[in-house]
Amino acid sequence: MTIGIAASGANAGESVRAAVLAAELLGRGAIGGFAVFAAMLHDGKVGHCVTQRGGAAKLAIPDQWLQATRATAISSGPDRPEPLQQFLPGFDGIGLVSGHRLPNRAGSDGEPLNRAVLRRLASGEMPQHAVDAVLHANGQSDAGLIAVDAQGRIGWGNSQRVASRADLGSFHRSEGDRRLAILHNSIYFMRDTADAVGSLAWSCLGGDTSAYQFLSLPQGVELRTAQSDRIQLDVDGNIALIETAAVQMSQMSGRFTAVYLGTPVWQGARLVGHVVSELIGQVQDGCVVRSLDPVSAMVVMRRAVHVAS
Fold first, then answer.
1. Euclidean distance between the first and the last CA atom of the chain, given in angstroms as a whole number
2. Closest-CA residue to 148 (of 176, 109, 182, 175)
3. Sequence-separated (6 or more) residues with CB below 8 Å from residue 268
4. Residue 106 DSSP code
5. Is residue 174 part of a domain?
6. What CATH number is given to the structural domain containing 92?
7. InterPro entries recorded for this chain (predicted)?
8. Which of 81, 84, 140, 228 sits a CA distance of 20 to 30 A from 61?
9. Do 284 and 193 share a structural domain?
10. Domain count within the chain
C-alpha cells in the first residue's frame, strides 16, 4: 500500500478524501487503484467504502461520512486481495487503523499488525503508544501504521525496516481538536508539489488556508483556440472556459490534454493561480471538453501569492 491517512476534527472525512485525490492528481506511482475509506460516525459505528479500481473518485462516500470527525483511508494500485477492509480495520467505538506498505501482515505473534494496534486501543492504550509498541516488537516488518481512536487522538510511525527506505513521505499536524497524519511511499511528485497533499487535507479540517485548490470541470466546457493557454473560472470557482494555443485544435476530436501543466488561471480580470496538474479530456469537434472519469474532471491549482481564499 502506498498511502495511508488519518484525520480527526470537523470534516475529517473530507480531509482524508482530499489527501488521496491530491496524491492521485499530483503523484506518479502505485496510486489510483484500490482504495478503502473508513469513518467513525457520531454513534461510534464504523463504516467502510471500498473500490478495487479508480481510487478515491470511485468511492461512493455518503455526505454524512465526509463530515465525520474521525476518518481514515488507504490506497495503492488496483486489484488487491479481498476483503479490502483487512487493510483498514476498525472497531465500533474504539478506533481505526490505516497505514502503508503491508499493515495487514501478521506480526511475530501471528496477529495482523493493524489489528494488534486496535486490540491495544480497546484495552485503553493511547494511539501513539499502541503504534510504537507494535512496531517496536516487529522492527523488521514491512509496515507503517496510523491509528485514530474514538477521542480523535492519532498515533503514527514506521517500522525500523520501512524507515530505512529512501522513497518515504509524511505529513503530520495537530492543532486544537484538529489532527492529521499521512504516510506514503513509492509516490513521486513534481518538484515543489509534495506539500500539496497535506496542505489540501489540512485546510479541509479548518486549518491554514492551502496554497493549493482543486478546480472542477463541469459536464462539458467550451474549448477555444487562442494565442496562449488560459483557464477562465466562473464566480463559483469552477472551470467555465479553456483556451489553448495547441496547433490544429479546431480539427481535433478524441482524447486530448485540454489543460496543460502550468496554464494560468483567471477569474474575471484577476490572475488567481497556475495549474500544477494536467487535465486530459474527451474533445468533440475541437470545441467541447468532457471528462473521461471523475479524477480527470479535476485539476490542482497553486494560488497566486497575492490571492486570498
1. 34
2. 182
3. none
4. B
5. yes
6. 3.60.20.10
7. DUF6963, DUF7259
8. 81
9. no
10. 2
Query: In 10 A of CB 299, how many CB atoms?
Result: 24
- Helix or strand holding residue 114 (H, E): helix 113-122
Three-state secondary structure call for residue 204: helix
Q: Let me know if residue 309 belongs to a domain.
A: no
- Is residue 17 within 8 A of residue 197, CB to CB? The reply is no
* Last residue of one domain, picked from the residues 183, 209, 235: 209
Identify the H or E element spanning 241.
strand 239-244
Residues 12 and 29 in one domain: yes
* Cell 502503508 found at: 100
3-class state of residue 262 by DSSP: coil
265 & 146 share domain = no
Q: What is the pLDDT along the chain (309 residues), one digit of tens a residue?
A: 999 999 999 999 999 999 999 999 999 999 999 999 999 999 999 999 999 999 998 999 999 999 999 999 999 999 999 999 999 999 999 999 999 999 999 999 999 999 999 999 999 999 999 999 999 999 999 999 999 999 999 999 999 999 999 999 999 999 999 999 999 999 999 987 889 999 999 999 997 889 999 998 887 888 888 999 999 999 999 999 999 998 766 667 788 888 999 999 999 999 999 999 998 888 887 677 777 776 678 899 999 986 555
Angle at 190 between CA 185 and CA 192, to 5 degrees: 100
